[in-house]
């Protein structure tokens, strides 16, 4: 570095320094200088030691130049697209932060929270041979905590996971605290009522129209009366369900299910797509989109597979007195229940009971007499159709009562509906009883000897139907209109026949003219006719 | 699984009821497969010696001389299990593209330089192959074959399955690709992109989902 500053000793050295300075001059075009370039090229030759370096020196030089240029070609870089994983992680980040509310009164929350202890459940489910990966379960646990914090819940339970073709659903079963439900439902119900009213109004308009103008043929088909929906906190709508696709994404509340949706869902088999707004294209048509289908399926699976050890629940005493009048639909925990020994639970299905009401063919848990309702409507409308025959009183449907033992479940084509086993035969002291549903593959239940039990469903939402599924046939076509004279087609007359008829008429006219000359008006009319 | 030099051929399967005693499953022959398909219905029982029975009434002769004869076909559950395993392997065994290689000796071997699919590739169903004797490949035109690498693309890709949409491909968690078959509910395949880790397992009731066309 200091050399150039020293006074050159001889002219050769000075010339060399001058030449070096010349070589160090930057080109204004490429902002490079020859000296640096030669240094790089020679370094490259030293590094790579190519054979016959002199033959390829031009290429080497070009390559060095090109690599040098590339850096400077553009300082703008493409921003890499944010991967979906990162987006999800950012949404899940909130799960791992403590909310501000947690710090206020930690003791109180610890006591009152309806949050289930998923970690304990997963410990038992792992022994049962089912469950979700621990990491996922931890996320779900945190997501449930988020749900509990956000909503006024009385109870909360992880119901299970439903697999879909593009995404999966995590389902949480909750019960709102009394009187603290959101208004959302009220609005929905109003909407439904309005729709019904509109439908009614439309019918009346049609009737008026038919009276006024030319009578068009009116369809004699009357849709069967819709089965009324069960109120919240009763029957199939006893619990409210929330779903989300991934822990951390917002929980979506499923709307209450209607009997029509349940009966339609029973007749179709479809995979879930993972998109709640996806339409359900099926025959028979399903009233609603995937949200409603999911809700109907959750209700069916719950009714079929939610079980508990015998004696854990008991009927309330007040309810017991009214037993004869209505099916009991509520129960309470039996505080004196001490658990059924595990070997007994494995041996006998009678030690397991359903604690969710059976759904009747009608699509409700409590049967409604549909024949009564139209009568009331008729009276309101003004007794127009009194003469109409009243439909026969239908037989009320009766399902098995609540808390029926599993041993009374029907077989599925020779297969028992439930399989039960012990989690470990080697250490029976600490084993748990594991129950697997054969009717709804994916539904599991476990029970320990001391009061602990849980149900979970992880599957595709497909009922086992034995032989292949046969979609219901479309209804039979309407009968033909009874054929009578006025609609029977006759053969067209041939030319000879027409001429003969004309001749006959002319003869007759001539005879009439002779006979009654006075009545000429009729003749004109006759002429008009032909 | 793959007991000889060739990973694709001569697969053998073992079964066990308690994970300690393992038994060799009989080799499925076409006759056995046909018998099982005709006779075995419903769920598995869990007893290898259980016999499924089918009684058929066949008419011999014509007109009034017709003689009705009853044939009884019997198939043990062990044979049914062998047939089911074979069918699952045939229909839905999956490997990522490039994980296996066909050598010049026409044997199929593990590709030790396989580094996994990239994250983008993992989202494409065409990068997963049926790990079984190819059915569709021979029917392809020369033009289509020109793009394929004969040492890697010697299997049928999943994207060319006859029933479109019989696979559910999802990215699970942060970096795991999960492929589920809708034809055999219970078959799950995983692959961690950018690593050679992959595998599949079947856990289900051993019944093919014949209702699939109605369910999509």
UniProtKB/TrEMBL annotation, chain A:
<feature type="compositionally biased region" description="Acidic residues">
    <location>
        <begin position="375"/>
        <end position="396"/>
    </location>
</feature>
<feature type="compositionally biased region" description="Acidic residues">
    <location>
        <begin position="178"/>
        <end position="214"/>
    </location>
</feature>
<feature type="compositionally biased region" description="Acidic residues">
    <location>
        <begin position="513"/>
        <end position="530"/>
    </location>
</feature>
<keyword id="KW-0206">Cytoskeleton</keyword>
<protein>
    <recommendedName>
        <fullName>Radial spokehead-like protein</fullName>
    </recommendedName>
</protein>
<keyword id="KW-0969">Cilium</keyword>
<dbReference type="Pfam" id="PF04712">
    <property type="entry name" value="Radial_spoke"/>
</dbReference>
<dbReference type="GO" id="GO:0035082">
    <property type="term" value="P:axoneme assembly"/>
</dbReference>
<feature type="region of interest" description="Disordered">
    <location>
        <begin position="497"/>
        <end position="530"/>
    </location>
</feature>
<dbReference type="GO" id="GO:0060294">
    <property type="term" value="P:cilium movement involved in cell motility"/>
</dbReference>
<dbReference type="GO" id="GO:0001534">
    <property type="term" value="C:radial spoke"/>
</dbReference>
<keyword id="KW-0966">Cell projection</keyword>
<keyword id="KW-0963">Cytoplasm</keyword>
<dbReference type="InterPro" id="IPR006802">
    <property type="entry name" value="Radial_spoke"/>
</dbReference>
<feature type="region of interest" description="Disordered">
    <location>
        <begin position="375"/>
        <end position="417"/>
    </location>
</feature>
<feature type="region of interest" description="Disordered">
    <location>
        <begin position="178"/>
        <end position="232"/>
    </location>
</feature>
Automatic annotation (TrEMBL), chain B:
<keyword id="KW-0282">Flagellum</keyword>
<protein>
    <recommendedName>
        <fullName>Radial spoke head protein 9 homolog</fullName>
    </recommendedName>
</protein>
<dbReference type="InterPro" id="IPR055316">
    <property type="entry name" value="RSP9"/>
</dbReference>
<keyword id="KW-0966">Cell projection</keyword>
<dbReference type="GO" id="GO:0035082">
    <property type="term" value="P:axoneme assembly"/>
</dbReference>
<dbReference type="GO" id="GO:0005930">
    <property type="term" value="C:axoneme"/>
</dbReference>
<keyword id="KW-0963">Cytoplasm</keyword>
<dbReference type="GO" id="GO:0060294">
    <property type="term" value="P:cilium movement involved in cell motility"/>
</dbReference>
<comment type="similarity">
    <text>Belongs to the flagellar radial spoke RSP9 family.</text>
</comment>
<dbReference type="GO" id="GO:0044458">
    <property type="term" value="P:motile cilium assembly"/>
</dbReference>
<keyword id="KW-0970">Cilium biogenesis/degradation</keyword>
<keyword id="KW-0969">Cilium</keyword>
<keyword id="KW-0206">Cytoskeleton</keyword>
<dbReference type="GO" id="GO:0060091">
    <property type="term" value="C:kinocilium"/>
</dbReference>
